[in-house]
Automatic annotation (TrEMBL):
This is Hormone-sensitive lipase. GO terms for molecular function: diacylglycerol lipase activity; monoacylglycerol lipase activity; retinyl-palmitate esterase activity; sterol ester esterase activity; triacylglycerol lipase activity. One of its GO terms (cellular component) is cytosol. Lipase with broad substrate specificity, catalyzing the hydrolysis of triacylglycerols (TAGs), diacylglycerols (DAGs), monoacylglycerols (MAGs), cholesteryl esters and retinyl esters. Shows a preferential hydrolysis of DAGs over TAGs and MAGs. Preferentially hydrolyzes fatty acid (FA) esters at the sn-3 position of the glycerol backbone in DAGs and FA esters at the sn-1 and sn-2 positions of the glycerol backbone in TAGs. One of its GO terms (biological process) is triglyceride catabolic process. The active site is at 470. The gene is LIPE. It comes from Bos indicus x Bos taurus. It is an enzyme of class 3 (hydrolase).
Amino acid sequence: MESAWETRPRVAFEAPASKRVQEGSKSQRRRRWRKARAKASRLLQRMDLRTMTQSLVTLAEDNMAFFSSQGPGETARRLTGVFAGIREQALGLEPALGRLLSVAHLFDLDTETPANGYRSLVHTARCCLAHLLHKSRYVASNRRSIFFRTSHNLAELEAYLAALTQLRALAYYAQRLLTTNQPGRLFFEGDERVIADFLREYVTLHKGCFYGRCLGFQFTPAIRPFLQTISIGLVSFGEHYKRNETGISVTASSLFTGGRFAIDPELRGAEFERIIQNLDVHFWKAFWNITEIQVLSSLANMASTTVRVSRLLSLPPVAFEMPLTSDPELTVTISPPLAHTGPGPVLVRLISYDLREGQDSKELSSFVRSEGPRSLELRLRPQQAPRSRALVVHIHGGGFVAQTSKSHEPYLKSWAQELGAPILSIDYSLAPEAPFPRALEECFYAYCWAVKHCALLGSTGERICLAGDSAGGNLCFTVSLRAAAYGVRVPDGIMAAYPATMLQSTASPSRLLSLMDPLLPLSVLSKCVSAYAGAETEDHPASDQKALGVMGLVQRDTALLLRDLRLGASSWLNSFLELGGQKSHLKSVSKTEPMRRSVSEAALTQPEGSLGTDSLKSLKLHDLGLRNSSDTTDTPELSLSAETLGPSAPSTINFLLGSEDGSEMSKAPEELNNKDRVRGVGAAFPEGFHPRRCSQGAMWMPLYSAPIVKNPFMSPLLAPDSMLQTLPPVHIVACALDPMLDDSVMFARRLRGLGQPVTLRVVEDLPHGFLSLAALCRETRQAAALCVERIRLILNLPGPPV
C-alpha cells in the first residue's frame, strides 16, 4: 500500500506564502539578534578593564539586592550567592590583571607584534568578564519576566563564576612568574624548588568548569560548536575505550553515542576532566587518529580540492650521497634511519594540483605504495605541466604521537592549488613506539631524498620551503639544523605554524592557558612529550597496575623487556657505525675524490653533553668535515643515539623539571631570597582566596627529569647561538590563545637577537591546530591563507590574482 507521501504529485515542495513570511521574519530577527550581540561584544572589548569591572560589580550588586528580597527560596539564595561571588572575584581579579597588563609590552617581539602569554591571559580573563557582564545585564532586564529561565541562567552564571575564580588563580600564578623569571624571559629559569612548588599547585586546579558550559568561551564564536562536538565525541570515545590483551578496542560508532553528554554540560565537563587526567597517550593517539577511518577520510576528501596527483611513496632504507654546500665536489653519506627499530622505509605523500614532468615516471612509480582505491587518484592528462621551480616539504603535527599526511591532506591539496608547486608530506614514525630521535632521522632522510630527487617530484628545486605545524614545526627547525650540521643544502626558508620549540617542561604565562584549552590540556601535553622523550613506558602508579590486570601487567612487562633489548641493540649498532666512521676519518681524502662519510648519529647533544665514552666525546662535527673550523668551539658533539641520554629516574612530583645546568641562551638568575623560597607559589594567593581544586585526585604526569629534553634537536629554543645562526629565514604563524604561544615568541626573539631573518604573525581568537580547521569558518580560512602567504614569500612566487 502506498503511503500518503508516495501518492502525492511529484512536484517540488513549496511552503505556503504565510509560512515563508513567518520563516523570513524569524531569520531576520535571528540576524538582527546576532548583529546586536556582535556589536555589544565589540563595545565590551573596547571598554577598559576598570570600566568593565565597575559595570559588572554594579550589576551584580543590583541583582543581589533583587534576589535577596525574593524570599528564602533555594533558587533565590543561590542567585544571590552567585552574584556575590561574581562581585568578589571581579574586584579581586581587576588589580592583578592591571599589573600584568602594565608590564606585558616588555615581553613582545616588537611594537608591531603585541603578543605573549601575559597578554593572552588578560584577554582570556576579559572574555570571561565580558560574558558575565552580558549575562548580568540580561538577568537585570528579564528577571521579572514570566519567560525568564531561572535554572538555565543560574547554571550558566555558576559555571562562569567557577571559570572566573580559576582565572584569578592563574593571574596570581602569572604574577609569581614575573617575580621569579629573568627580566624579559617568558619561561622559568632558575631554582627547581620554586618550579616544583608551582607544578604541585598548578596540577591540582579544577578544570571541569572550562569543559562544560564555558567550553571555548575565549575563541571566536564560529569555533565553539565544533569544540562542543569534539568534546562530546571525546567523552563518548572515552567511555568506549578499553585496553585488553590485544591492544585498544574502539569503534567509530563510539563518537555518536554521547547524547547524555550533549544535554548535560556539567556531566560532560566532569567526564572530560577525568579523561584528560587518567587516560594515557594511547587513548589520545587513538582519538586523534579517528579522522583517518575510511568513512571520515572519504568525506574529507570529497569536500577538499581535487588534485591530479596524490600518491603515497615508500622510500627504501638505502644510503645515498649528498654534495656539501661548501664544496660540491665533496659528498656526505645520508644514512637511512636507524634509531630504535633499525633501518626501515620512510613513507611520504606527493601531492600536486597538476601532473608535472617526472611525476608519472617509471622511477617514481617504483616507490608508490598502494592505498587501495585511493591510490588511483593519479589521473593522467594528455599533456604534462612543466616542472615547478618550487617544492614544499611538509611535516605534519599531532603531538609526535598521532596523525599522518592523510589527516592533513585536505588543506595540503588547497596549498598545492594556490602555490602551483608540488608538496611532499612526510609520514614519520610516531611515539611512543618510535620515540626521539626516530622521527627526526626519518624527516631528515626524506628531506635529503627530496632535495636529491626533486626532478622526480615535478620540481626543479630552485626554491625549497620546509613547512609544518605544531610538532611538525619543531621538526622543521631540527631538520634544518641537522642539514646545516651535515653541511648539505638547507631549505630556503621555514614556515612553522604554532610550533613547539621548548619541550623541556617549565612554566610560562601562555602555558597557564592549558588549564582551559580543550585541545591542549596540560596533562595531554606532558604525556605526548613524555612519549616522544622515550619515558612513556616507565612504571605507572599502583592504581594503574591494578587496573591493567594480570594479563595487562604481563603485556606491559614484556613490552618493557622488548624495548630494553631494542634500545640496547640500537645503541650497539650505532656505536659500531660511529666508531667505524671515526676510524675512516683518519684516512686522508684527496681533493679529486668525493668525500664519503657514514654519519649515522641520532642526535647532537648540548655542548656540555655527558656521554660515557671518551672516544665519542672526542668525535666532533668538524672532525667529520661538516663544519668550518671557525665554528669548532661551539660545535655540539655527536652522540651514539638518543638512548645514551635516556630518561633518568622519575622526579618526586612526576613532572619534568628543568635541569640544573641551563642552556647557552640563559644566564643564572639572581638568587631568590629565602623568604620567597619558603613562601612558594601557593603563597602568591591573597589571604582568603581559595581556587577550586580538582576532584579527580592527584594527577599522574608521566614526565621525567631527563637530559634528553635539553637536546637542541628536541628543544630548538635551547640550541646554542652557533646552531641557530645556521637557520634560513623563519616565518612563524602563532595563535594568541595557544598554550604554545610563548614558544613562538621566545624563539622569534632569540633569532631576532642573533640578527637572523624572522617574522612572527599572531592570529586572534583561534585555537591550536587551526590549519586542520581551515574549512570551518572565515577566521580559520584567513589564518590558513596567512600561512600560504608566508610560504609564497619563501618561494618567491607571485601573489594570487586579485
